[in-house]
Structures are given as C-alpha cells and as structure tokens.
Design a protein that fits this description.
The protein has one domain. It has 4 helices and no strands. The N and C termini lie far apart (about 50 Å). It has helices at about 1-40, 40-45, 65-80, 90-105. By secondary structure, the chain is mainly alpha-helical. About 70% of the residues lie in helices and about 0% in strands.
Length: about 100
Amino acid sequence: MFRKLDVLSEETQRLACLYEHKLVALDSLGRSLLHQAFSGELAKSSKQSAVLAFPKTVPNVSASDLHAGVLAIAYDLHERANRQKNFGHVKAEKIAHMVEAVAGN
C-alpha cells in the first residue's frame, strides 16, 4: 500500500512540475505576442509565418475566458513595468481587439 502511495506521490509531483513548465511557457508566449504586437512585428509577419498557430477556439475555454486571459496578461505586463495607471478600459479593449485580430478570432 505504501508503494502505491509513493508511486502516486511521484506521479503527482511530476504532473505538478509539468503544469508549472506549461504555465511558464504560456506566460512567455503571451509576453512574446504582446511585445510583437506593440513593436509592429505581428502586422509584418502574421501573414507570412507564425511561431504557433493560434486556435480560433480552445477546448473547454469560452471566448470570454480567452478574452479575459489576454487582458490579464496585458495588465500583468503593465503592472510589472509599473504602468498600471495607464491601463484603462479603452486601452484594454484595444489590446484585446488587436490580439484577437492577429489571431484570427
């Protein structure tokens, strides 16, 4: 019985580590997309090639949740740069619209 618990504990730790790596990769992707969007690189390269194809839908994620995720990443970037005072409703919606336009949504 203890061996089964050890195996389950090891697998849980492995999955938790994998989950953390995926969160870091997702954060990095979001930052990269926002950086490219603000630097004008997305407009130049989006029709030619893409690093990762952005799905029009994500399984088990509503369009509202996806929209909220884009806004959360954008706000986090502003907060880390100590510029959250410049992040209002209009700017948030412009960022979301730009990312969704480039992503094809």
